[in-house]
Amino acid sequence: MDTKQSDKIAVFDTLYTNNHIQMLKILIPVVGKEFRHNLAIYIKYMEFQYTISLAKSAPHTFNLCAESEKQPVDFFELCDELLPFCSEKEQSMLKNIKNIQGTLKQYKEMESAMKMMKELFPEGMDFGTKTGSGDNESGFSMDMLLNLLSPEQKDLFSMFQNKEE
Questions:
Q1: Helix or strand run (H / E) with residue 127
Q2: Which pLDDT tens digit goes with each residue over 16-46?
């Protein structure tokens, strides 16, 4: 766990506790083994009661930090912060979600690029298919453009072309 993650957890723990609960936490290592579990349960119960009382007295304190700061949440950064706390199965699912989100983001970028291409070439995107070389009168080759794309972008481009037909 990096410092940023532990800071977020510490801030939450500090906001939703009080000095008496903190004092009880300090006592856990010095009480007898048979009493530790009961004390831990009691501490969690007190934290729960304290949190409920805070929610009743000041319901607006539970607003999300991103809402109060009016900053957009970076989905990929959030996933990376959650990964260390996940089981292997959860990590795999989170990575898959990140990959899907990344693919959707690329698709949206490709979609906007295709809209721009349609504006630049309103007569159509059929560049040089009438000649065998792939070049049209302007010397522009669609193959040249496709060679600039990554394999994932090429796949998205072909999906987008199929969508347009």
A1: none
A2: 888 899 999 999 999 989 899 999 999 999 9
**Which of the pair, 52 or 143, is modelled with greater confidence?**
52
Instruction: Give the residues across from 141 on adjacent strands.
Output: 135
Residue with tokens 């996940």: 86
Residue holding tokens 């298919």? 129
Continuous H helices in the chain: 3-15, 19-27, 33-57, 65-69, 75-82, 88-120, 142-147, 151-164
Please give the structure tokens belonging to residue 127: 């560049």
Distance separating alpha carbons of residues 121 and 136, to the nearest angstrom: 13
How far apart are alpha carbons 86 and 65 in whole angstroms? 22
pLDDT of 76-106, one tens digit each? 888 888 888 889 999 999 888 888 888 888 8
**Region for residue 109 given its phi and psi (left: phi exceeds 0; alpha: psi -120 to 50; beta: otherwise):** alpha
Asked whether 81 and 4 are in contact (CB, 8 A), the reply is: yes
The CA distance from 41 to 10, in Å, is: 20
Q: Which two tokens stand for residue 43?
A: 């501490």
